[in-house]
Amino acid sequence: MTTTRLPLFPLNTVLFPGLVLPLNVFEARYRALMRDLLDLPEDGPRPFGVVAIRDGHEVAPSAIGLPEPDAPLPEAGPGAGFAADPMDSFHGVGCIADASTIRPRASSAAAVLAEEGEPEAAADGYEVLATGTTRFRLLSVESSGPYLTAEVETLPEDPGEGAGALASGVLRAFRGYQKELAGANERTLASGQELPEDPSVVSYLVAAATVMYTSDKQRLLQAKDTATRLAEELKILRRETTLISRLPSVPGAEYTLRPTSMN
């Protein structure tokens, strides 16, 4: 395991290794982060850390789940909306994201600034496409710059005992879950698609595609090994499939869509 410092992008969602994360970036602190990533070599990685928010909110300091009702919160700057110690606002395990696409969304002044050789300075936002790569443990968070940065320790992906057999069982359960969720006559995520065989990939794909609370997804992300994650997913899928089968009015097809995270 190695430690490194990364720009930090807190979200109200959990990113898993191998999964794609689309972002619509509009806040000043995260625009600054994207400008710095654009300064990195285009043919190299552009990494940043994604952590799920425990307390606080990405935009406004008025969301449910703030640390304490009377606790002072930063009103502006990199720590806006989070606890005085941002570590208290985030879950302890996150995922490194590699931004493969960072597309500036130009403001009305874009043409002028572009002529002056500063196209990025005109951007009032960015459309970003990133992919999760490696899990990390959050060691510390720094808020002295234009955006949060974090010292992180990368985590290995241990297979654990019986991961292969568990993956097969999870895939079968996942197909049944998707059939119940979308309805017997609806096209599901599983139908017509070749699902992966690698147990680790299966564990993350299923964790991302299954409808559950952020806290449950977080628990799966920080599982000690692949087998543990798969075993927990098997329980969740069986439970959820049974519940959905008893609630035919659930608009499950809508839950199979993953919206762009508006940040």
From TrEMBL:
Q: What is this protein called?
A: Peptidase s16
InterPro entries from the xrefs? Answer: Lon_prtase_N, Lon_prtase_N_sf, PUA-like_sf
Matching PROSITE patterns: LON_N
The taxonomic lineage of its organism, from the top, reads: Bacteria, Bacillati, Actinomycetota, Actinomycetes, Kitasatosporales
Superkingdom, according to UniProt?
Bacteria
Q: Which residue numbers delimit the Lon N-terminal domain? A: 6-241
SUPFAM superfamilies for the chain: PUA domain-like
The species this protein belongs to is Streptomyces xiamenensis
Enumerate the Pfam families for this protein: LON_substr_bdg
Q: Which PANTHER family match?
A: ATP-DEPENDENT PROTEASE LA (LON) DOMAIN PROTEIN (PTHR46732:SF8)
